[in-house]
Amino acid sequence: MAAIIIVGAQWGDEGKGKATDILGGKVDYVVKPNGGNNAGHTVVVGGEKYELKLLPAGVLSENATPVLGNGVVVNLEALFEEIDGLEARGANASRLRISSNAHLVTPYHQTLDRVQERFLGKRAIGTTGRGIGPTYADKVARVGIRVQDLFDESILRQKIESALDVKNQMLVKMYNRKAIEVDAIMDYFMGYAERVKPMVIDAERTLNDALAQGHHILMEGGQATMLDVDHGTYPFVTSSNPTAGGACVGSGIGPTQITGVLGIVKAYTTRVGAGPFPTELFDKWGDYLQEVGGEVGVNTGRKRRCGWYDAVIARYAARVNGFTDYFLTKLDVLTGIGEIPICVAYDVDGVRHDEMPLTQSEFHHAEPIFETMPAWDEDITGCREFSDLPQRAQDYVLRLEELSGAPMSYIGVGPGRDQTIVRNDIMER
Ligand code: GDP
Ligand code: IMO
Ligand code: MG
């Protein structure tokens, strides 16, 4: 039995989709524990590129059952668009199952996300505009709509009525928008209810029974540690807990069952949306990483902000998640750049900080303290063993390992499924 959690170690887009795809072939279930259709996970199989938003990338694994856990917020329109798109390409999404406790994103959550961002003006978070924050806010405020509410029309109507009582006041009086009719939301949900019902399960029970029978489960976190609502760069975060503890809450699998926590980390750093980013580059190297790394957001098409590897963040992520291993991605992007800076600590107003500063204000002032290593010039995209890598690439990986709080067990040398060096297989322990 194995229960592995995949967690983004930086600000997202580290390559969680690719890592899931590689491990997904060895597990029985791939569970998405948090987030919604704000994610964008890329999988490249046999030259074919798939971009998953709401569905776990495990939907492409032949034998795994993909599950949307209770911690996910589900947009039904986006769900069926994605399923139809995948099936049109020959993929099989028929095994998909959804927790009855997952919350539903409604059209009013999407409207609120967009108007709230507009009202924030210069202080906007740069959300994906998918209604994620307002849906989680309703969940915590206990006025959310859950998947199971689709089974009881009168309860569903009551819940929508009480949510809209307040939402319409906000939309009309604060945001100068039209009120939303209860019937319109009822019709929206009823249009999907019959199709979604056969997919709905008691996911907590199914997954724990599977573990008891010795099956393997992979949890594919969305977003990342630095976007976590508790541990990230608040308020420039998403509204869920993408960290390892959140994966337990978002799936109903207890912490004592977890056999490995795999942090996905890029060989440099990127961020989409607003918020502090100490190693961000504003010179030609930022453009270089953006172009050569193909750093364009899957979900919103925005260019990703780029910077050097930040070992302070990696150590922090290793701590708050309890990483047992890292999957280092995109090492190939650094080929031929001469010298590679690595941020090892911060200078905050003249004081050296080897670990995350106490406050966000200090983090906003953090200036990276770099050490540099020589890059390699050889093409590494065909390397499959650690010893195939040029010595300088090996040295870079080993230095990152020393600085980052967990072993670099997997190394990505290209986007393809096979372009991976496995130093220590997390499934074979
Ligand atoms: P996710 O959100 O963490 O799943 O990551 P994204 O899919 O948003 O972004 C990661 C991008 O990097 C995708 O385009 C992947 O195909 C690509 N990728 C993943 N691993 C590697 C790698 O080792 N090398 C290269 N060159 N690309 C990679
Ligand atoms: P994956 O899973 C990168 C960012 C948004 C914004 C903030 C809040 O592909 O790594 P939200 O719509 O969630 O309320 O936006 O979080 N964000 C991501 N950035 N990758 C993601 O997902 C992200 N999901 C949300 O850009 O800054
Ligand atoms: Mg992504």
Automatic annotation (TrEMBL):
EC number per UniProt: 6.3.4.4
Pathway: Purine metabolism; AMP biosynthesis via de novo pathway; AMP from IMP: step 1/2
GO MF terms held by the record: adenylosuccinate synthase activity; GTP binding; magnesium ion binding
Cofactor binding note from Swiss-Prot or TrEMBL: Binds 1 Mg(2+) ion per subunit.
Function according to Swiss-Prot or TrEMBL: Plays an important role in the de novo pathway of purine nucleotide biosynthesis. Catalyzes the first committed step in the biosynthesis of AMP from IMP.
Group of enzyme by EC: ligase
Positions annotated to bind substrate: 298-304
KW GTP-binding (keyword) present: yes
Catalysed reactions listed for this entry: IMP + L-aspartate + GTP = N(6)-(1,2-dicarboxyethyl)-AMP + GDP + phosphate + 2 H(+)
Residues binding GTP, per UniProt: 12-18, 40-42, 304, 330-332, 412-414
Organism: Corynebacterium genitalium ATCC 33030
Name of this chain's protein: Adenylosuccinate synthetase
SMART domains assigned to the protein according to its UniProt record, in alphabetical order: Adenylsucc_synt
